Amino acid sequence: MQIDAGMGKVVVADKYKRTYFLSGLAVYRLGRLGMKHVTVGAGGLWGTCQANKVYKYVAGDFKLAKGLSMHQVDAGGNGQIVGVGSGSYNAYCLKEKTASGFYGRHTLSWTSLSRKMMYYSCGPRMGCWGVDKSYRIWVTKNISPTNCRTSGWTAVSGPRMKMIEVSSDGNVFGVTTTGRVYQRIGITNHSRQGTRWVYVPMCMSVRHLSYDLKNLWIVTTSGLIMKCSC
Fold it and tell me: Would you state the pLDDT for residue 217?
């Protein structure tokens, strides 16, 4: 159903809300609790369950992170965790110090980013990208891991996206509402929004994707996992 890659690690969630990590050609179960969405990166391994509660993977199992409910979270930034609030679709950020220090106790305090998103992803080098409820694409040049302040949001023209991911090296890939894959080209420090979208042909319709260390990970709508070395 969903896949995320970061810092050389790959984690997945299946249709039964079971989560796994990839090692070689095998997958191994992560924890006892079911997650509909998992993410791994500098901020650790986090997930959201079917009830939209947030969890962090601590000492071999998922520990409940009390606070706001999230539809989706992302750990790909500089240690901060970002997420999309359930119901409200408000974008939030969890400061790096809070995220790294959380071990299963206390209630987390999230910072609102004053933007509504349906899906949201950050990288350590090239800012954050998101898709709103109208499937429009947005990018912010910077987000501070210490205080969660952003440099403002810029709209990016392109196809109607249902999800978008930015990797640790700044590569950006998205999946359209029809299951087609595109890559954003021309992203630099001076032009975080890039210049154009390039269609990436796939043999099947795509549900979800993630990119890390020159590998594009794909989940097809039929549930297959594919790895494309780029």
Answer: 97
The region that residue 100 occupies, defined by phi over 0 for left and psi between -120 and 50 for alpha, beta otherwise, is alpha
Encoded tokens for 81:
């965790």
Q: HSE of 213 in the Cβ direction (CA atoms, 13 Å)?
A: 8
Closest alpha carbon to 62 in 90, 20, 124, 104 = 104
For residues 209 and 218, give the distance between their C-alpha atoms in angstroms, rounded to a whole number: 5
Query: So what's the pLDDT on residue 100?
Result: 96
In Å, how far are 10, 50, 81, 125, 167 from 76, measured between CA atoms? 12, 22, 8, 10, 7
CA 190 to chain centre: 23
User: What sign for the dihedral angle of Cα 197, 198, 200, 201?
Assistant: positive
- Dihedral angle of Cα 171, 218, 7, 25, to the nearest 10 degrees: -150
Token pair recorded at residue 143 = 């987000």
What count of residues does the chain have?
A: 230
Tell me what the pLDDT averaged over the chain comes to: 95
For residue 189, what pLDDT band results from cuts at 50, 70 and 90? confident
pLDDT for res 32: 95
Q: What is the mean pLDDT of residues 74-103?
A: 96
Residue 103 has a pLDDT of: 95
